[in-house]
Predict the structure of Acyltransferase.
Amino acid sequence: MRTQLQIDAPPGPAAPPVPEKSRLPSLTGLRWIGAMLVFGFHVGTMGIMADEGPRTLISRVFGMGLSGVQFFYILSGFVLVWSFRPGEKRMTFYRRRIVKILPNHAVLWLAVILLVGVWWGDPVNPVVAVVNLFLVQAWFPANGWFYSINTVSWSLSCELFFYLCLPLVLPLIRRLPAWALYAVAVALPLLMLVAIWPGQLLVPESWRWWFTQVFPVVRSLEFWLGVVAAELSLRSRWRGPGLPVSLGVFAAAWVVCSNEWVPAVMWPTVLAVAYIVVIAAAARADVENLWSPFRNRPLRWLGEVSFAFYMVHVFVVTGVLRAVGQTHGYSGWAGLAASLGLFGLCLGSAALLYRYVEQPMVRLLGPRRPRYLRPSRAS
């Protein structure tokens, strides 16, 4: 029996019954794992380490860390459907999502403009800057547009597109029978493979990286995979393995894709399957109070600040390296020490951004929580 009832909610699309334990702390903890995959990848590509040996090791471990963004997209689709409020007005949903991402984005946008454009005097294209500020840069395939200002904000441009689409598509998804949802869940990873090859052959060669890695329509395939899996989970129709086996599936997928004999075009499809299996299993573990290594308090806090961490890490690392004149990285143990020091600086900056920007702005600009009435004992 529910402990609270919502009132004054306008009619909306029918939704499946939500399991009693609707909060998913394990998925919050998993957000940090995704952030670390991306950070590890950038440690190997942003010139922190000068020696070939350490860079090769990092590349071996985190060579597919860029797929952490893929993990975030799948997780985002799952969480948004799981937490979707039946009867919520469309504009209220949009407002809740935009105030979650826009303040952090605006702060980092301004910081980059002031540091790079004003302090260091690098040229900044004003049109590109405006396009970036309004988070539409991922729709522009030209170099210097989609990776601009705070370069990681390209992913927010995709997320904004997903947010706009979800309330329009979710009523249709919730009318689909379970067999159709399973068909979609199988088709989406295959469509990812088709989009990468031969789909990229349909666009000019100079646009192929943008088409496969940035284009919001292509990247939305990952988001919709999370959406469909969440809908099946809400209906108690998801039939994936438990969390221990799912983690084994992910580890095996990571090892297999790390081998050179596996074509790179296969990575997104294989990892998408591994990611959604883990996400759905972690959600089930929370609902059924099963074992999960991701719901402890430190990891949940790290998950809460993971978005801020993702937003600051490239800006902090590149800014510090340029400020101290180490554009070619550090040699020997100094490279490892610098990586750990920059990690700590990024985490500290993320904690400040989360505490003094993200949380206050969500409280100030976000919609009020719906009013609730506590039912009588007779209910």
